[in-house]
Known about the structure:
FliS_sf; Four Helix Bundle (Hemerythrin (Met), subunit A)
Amino acid sequence: MALTGINAYRKGNLKQDIANADPHKLTLMLMQGALDRIAYAKGAMERREYEQKAQFISRVVAILINLRDTLDLEAGQEMAANLFELYDYMINRINEAHITNSLQYLDEVSSLLTTIRDAWVQIPESAKQEAYEIQRQKQQAI
């Protein structure tokens, strides 16, 4: 009973965090969510809880697809194209992990995504603000 209350509290806090987050923070939250679900999928795989594993892997794939499909390929040019390919690769590896029950593939994706997340955290505030301003100007021009 108490766990239900804790989970409801967490969901409420998550909704509030999302409502107050800027695009940089939202992306960071998605990356961390994918990493968490990879860890959960690994645990489920090790315990042979295949239904749980499938649910976590499905959520990881959905997050990676979202990260891939929201890249601004025009603005990001080569870097965005490289990230698109990397996200696509990770999606394929996650699917292979699901099919083959490979912890190694999950570890590989976790390592790749951790590297991206760590780089994302290092983006200077001035660069974030510049990107937000460019995006705002694009939206106003529409």
